[in-house]
């Protein structure tokens, strides 16, 4: 599908993944993953191209593992999907995950992972909208300290900085970049939602309403 036709597709608001309702979308999530790693700027997202049938199966299995973690209550998947017309397939325009592993010493911590926006849907506020909903869900779960990491120069880096995430460190030669094969530097960020000025407007004030709308 061309970018011009994609720009005409209506998109859902950010949605909270529910296994009983959304399990059938696994191929669409895998397709988004493949689209991201094979398109500029080739973000680092666990798998490297080329994407063979065997690797496609690996990616499907990887996503099923994430769905299983949702059932366990340790992962929350936020996504935006297309609202297809009759006869069209649903596409995932963007996704981000919130990991909240069980920890008696860190129940207030959450980890933002696997932020992806389909190249054909960039520039429509998909990424920012998903990140705001991630923060809303995190606050509902009591995870007011969020941490994440991304490679230098990624599209996500700019969004994280604009949303008030604070860089606290870098590790050189952290991940292999598929575009050149070089080892890229990883940047680590954190954000305290309870103390965020932005959160008063875009997260704290809306979180109950927004999360309820997902149910």
Please describe the structure with a list of short key phrases separated by commas or semicolons.
alpha+beta; seven-stranded mixed beta sheet; GNAT_dom; 8 helices; Acyl_CoA_acyltransferase; 215 residues; acyltransferase activity, transferring groups other than amino-acyl groups
What is the topology?
Elements: H1 3-6, E1 15-16, H2 19-22, H3 26-37, H4 53-72, E2 75-81, E3 92-99, E4 109-117, H5 126-140, E5 145-151, H6 155-162, E6 166-176, E7 183-192, H7 197-202, H8 207-214
Parallel strand pairs: 4-5
Antiparallel strand pairs: 1-2, 2-3, 3-4, 5-7, 6-7
Could you explain how this protein is built, in words?
This protein is an alpha+beta fold and 215 residues long. The chain has a single domain, classed as 3-Layer(aba) Sandwich (Aminopeptidase). The chain contains eight helices and seven strands, in the order αβαααβββαβαββαα. A seven-stranded mixed sheet has the order 1-2-3-4-5-7-6, with helices on both faces. The longest helix is centred in the N-terminal third of the chain and has 20 residues. The radius of gyration is 17 Å and the shape is globular. The two termini are 31 Å apart.
């Amino acid at each position: 599908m061309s970018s011009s036709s994609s720009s005409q597709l209506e998109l859902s608001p950010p949605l909270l993944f529910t296994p009983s309702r959304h399990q059938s979308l696994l191929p669409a999530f895998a397709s988004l993953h493949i689209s991201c790693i094979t398109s500029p700027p080739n973000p680092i997202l666990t798998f490297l191209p080329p994407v063979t049938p065997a690797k496609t199966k690996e990616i499907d299995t990887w996503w099923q593992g994430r769905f299983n973690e949702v059932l366990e209550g340790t992962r929350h998947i936020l996504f935006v999907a297309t609202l297809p017309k009759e006869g069209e397939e649903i596409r995932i325009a963007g996704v981000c995950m919130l990991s909240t592993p069980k920890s008696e010493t860190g129940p207030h911590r959450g980890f933002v992972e696997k932020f992806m926006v389909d190249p054909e849907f960039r520039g429509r506020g998909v990424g920012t909208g998903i990140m705001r909903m991630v923060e809303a869900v995190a606050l509902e779960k009591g995870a007011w300290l969020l941490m994440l990491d991304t490679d230098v120069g990624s599209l996500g880096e700019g969004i994280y900085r604009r949303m008030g995430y604070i860089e606290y460190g870098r590790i050189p030669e952290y991940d292999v970049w598929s575009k050149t094969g070089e080892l890229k530097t990883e940047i680590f960020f954190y954000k305290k939602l309870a103390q965020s000025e932005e959160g008063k407007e875009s997260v704290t004030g809306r979180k109950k309403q927004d999360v309820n709308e997902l149910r």
